[in-house]
Amino acid sequence: MGERQYGVEAIFAGDPVRFDLRPDQASVESLEAAIGSPFAAFTRFRDGLWTISDIRMVLGHAYPDAVLMQGLTRVAAVDAAIVARPAATYAPLAIKILEAFLFGLAADQVRFVEGPAL
Fold first, then answer.
1. Angle CA 40–41–43, to nearest 5
2. Is the dihedral of CA 20, 100, 25, 46 positive or negative?
3. pLDDT digits 0-9 by tens, 38-47
4. What share of the chain is helix, strand, coil (3-state, %, to 5)?
5. Long-range Cβ contacts of 40-44 (<8 Å, 24+ apart)
6. For residue range 28-62, what is the model confidence (pLDDT) as tens digits?
7. Which residues of 84-105 are buried (b: 16+ CB within 10 A; e: fewer)?
8. Which residues are within 8 A (CB) of 102 and not within 5 positions of it... i.e. 6 or more apart?
9. φ, ψ dihedrals at 59, nearest 5°
């Protein structure tokens, strides 16, 4: 088995984006303030109990160059993508990001390609 990967390579809003949740203390504290326990969030996604806010928070925290505003990480590209496509399009991406962060993924599992825009 190859080396574990901790980020996800995605086609997101038509562009290639690498989503990474950073393991440094400040980033983890910010993520936990937004979604609670990353493992509990992973479990909510796995069990189909996620919210659109959960998707926004996970993608926003993992999106490169995310901007912290009013205590929440929001990225214009994340919000625009969620508006352009059904929000559920991005639940598999969010779960994959959390899975990579928590457990690491095999190299053949780190890709996500969204469907066409509405």
1. 65
2. positive
3. 999 999 999 9
4. 50, 20, 30
5. 41/98, 42/95, 42/98, 42/99, 42/102
6. 898 899 899 999 999 999 999 999 999 999 998 89
7. ebebebbbebbbbbbbbbeeeb
8. 38, 39, 42
9. -65, -40
